[in-house]
Write a structure and sequence with these properties.
Helix content is about 20%, strand content about 30%. By secondary structure, the protein is of the alpha+beta class. A 5-stranded antiparallel beta sheet has the order 1-2-3-6-7, with helices on both faces. A 3-stranded antiparallel beta sheet has the order 4-5-8. Pfam families: Pep_deformylase.
Length: about 170
């Protein structure tokens, strides 16, 4: 399936809390394909959540394996349906960007280690311990499912928001 158009802030769908997926069926399989295609087509993208393509369901995809920040520590391509964070540890401020906010990046504080439970693309429940950049990327995508953008988590609007120089 082709990459989908990314909704841009301040589109109202980006601020909606998403509905749980009740069955992993053909519709969800198609959504997953759309999310993966969109992630792979995005410049430097390491994840996409369903609301970013206009679907208010609790589904996101993450893959930091191609990023210099996550290359050494990752679980590969993750399809996450109804994800929930079970525990968090640590904290660090990192610069984040988002395809839905293409003109800015910002300093956001996130947990550096998480335990997350979700269903994969086959509907199988999984639980993973993630750390570093992968943990940050998962938290970022999960925020989308709750109508939260990285802009809502900027550590300081005065010193922590930056105009992106280029977005390729």
């Amino acid at each position: 399936m082709p990459a989908q158009k990314i909704l841009l802030y301040p589109h109202p769908v980006l601020k909606k809390v998403c509905h749980p997926v009740t069955a992993v069926d053909q519709e969800i399989a198609g959504l997953i394909d759309d999310l993966l295609d969109t992630m792979h087509a995005g410049p430097g993208s390491v994840g996409v959540a369903a609301p970013q393509i206009g679907v208010t369901l609790r589904v996101c995809v993450v893959d930091v394996s191609g990023s210099r920040h996550g290359k050494e520590n990752n679980h590969g391509q993750l399809v996450m349906i109804n994800p929930e964070i079970l525990s968090c540890e640590g904290g660090a401020v990192m610069r984040e960007g988002c395809m839905s906010v293409p003109d800015y990046t910002g300093d956001v504080e996130r947990s550096t280690a998480i335990t997350v439970r979700f269903q994969d693309g086959a509907g199988v429940e999984r639980q993973l311990e993630c750390s570093g950049f992968e943990a940050v990327a998962i938290q970022h995508e999960m925020d989308h499912l709750d109508g939260i953008l990285f802009l809502d988590r900027i550590v300081s609007l005065k010193t922590g928001l930056f105009r992106r120089k280029n977005y390729k």
